[in-house]
Design goal:
The chain is an alpha/beta fold. It has 4 domains: 3-185, Rossmann fold (3-Layer(aba) Sandwich); 205-257, no CATH class; 263-349, Winged helix-like DNA-binding domain superfamily/Winged helix DNA-binding domain (Arc Repressor Mutant, subunit A); 374-496, 3-Layer(aba) Sandwich (Trna Endonuclease, Chain: A, domain 1). It contains 21 helices and 12 strands. The strands form 3 sheets. Strands 2-3-4-1-5 form a 5-stranded parallel β-sheet, sandwiched between helices. Helix 13 packs across helix 14. The model is unreliable at 1-6 (pLDDT under 50).
Length: 498
Amino acid sequence: MSRTDALRYAKPDTVLGRDAEWEALTAFASDPRPGPGLGVVSGRLRQGKTHLLRALTGAAGGFWFGAQEAVRSESLRMLGEQVAEYAGAPARSRPRGWEAAVDALLRLGEGRPLPVVVDEFPRLVRQSPSLPSVICAALHRRSAAAGEDGGARPRLLLCGSDLPVMRRLFSGPSPLHGLADLELEVRPPDFRQAARLWGLDDPRLAFLVHAVVGGTPAYRYDHVRGDTPGGPDDFGAWVRRTVLDPGTPLYREARLLLLEETDHLDRALCHSALAAVASGHSTSGEIAEFLDVPLPDVSRCLELLHESGLLGAEPDALRPNVTRLRIAEPLLAFEYAVVRPRRSSAEREDADALWHRARPVFETEVAAPHFAQVCRDWASGYAGSGVFGEAPATALHGSPAHPPPDAAPAAEVVVRGPAGERPGALLSVGLARWDEVLDVAHLERLRRLIAHLAARGEDTARTRPACYSGAGFTPALRAAEADGEVVLVGLDRLYGGG
């Protein structure tokens, strides 16, 4: 049987979406080749990794072990008991060491491929730093003996939420580097997938909910007690009874998320750095100046927040030597822009009054930048092949050097084509405005910005101006679109068109 003929397990109804992830996992888990295989699954907390892997082992009759915070001896005992129970063997004393424990795991799967999951693997490595070397040696030994050990074909999946540790364990000088047949990162569902996850058909409401909670599956099912907005008019009330209610898990989640992801950092600096990013400071220099903290200290903090998946960092599309930062988790952006500045009164003030005061801040500091990011995600992931003339390679924020006063000072959505190491062809330069109706005056400012870029040596022969708006477009701008002068993208197109 070839690898492409491998059995595929049906995805359970309890797994919503995640088709690509399920396909990758089942292809690995059912690979019929002899000997062991190694797969790596990583992703931030709350993204459904455990649920996905539990579903896989359930569908395939595989083995799942969830590591806990425990000393080495207790972890070995718990693993030994679960292996014995799974194999239907008499209860034995715990394995004497990790060599015996790993050998027991790799003996599973006799006669057929079998997924063998070790969840939260970094917890074990913290107590037993030699464990990666033990696994490496066992995999080599079992691979060399493939076909001579009763046909065991375990498909070992090591999973973890600590992204910096997972990257170190499977890269560079690590013994496990280069051994994995599968490296899968489980990311939050994007804005369209999140709308389906929450069951929201109204594009404006779907965007507003995404601006607060993003696409994290756990927030939909575990943190709001099944509460979803009943319609656009219910959004404000939903915010008040969930993320602004001290009695709900969602109210505390942002602080817990930072606590769990940054246990090795200066948390005070992390809080302040995230607050600075939430207020619009997007480079390490701007943040250091705003906080009055030495740049090396700030840079190290920002680097680790980025490694943990809490900060996004992308080059400026028009000045590639400038790196721009953004909060990658919408709930954190909401926390640092809306809740944290008002925390002293949040737990004693009426939620209606609090939201009335905070709503303008939400619109300008949360919804507006989030809308720009959603527009970039649409341009890179959903725009049809003819929208920009060719398939985009990147869609990023762009801030040109010294733009003229009558031109747009920056472009929220700059689309480039592929070009290897160099910046690709400039396919589109666009403005994104969440709460502003766009007119031909905005198009003219875009045209002047494009002319400025051309004067500075940028090839703009194929550059298409684009306007993105959550509030709509004037008839004059619609007429310009009909004449092929501009690309217009509103909420309906973001959520349902290409």
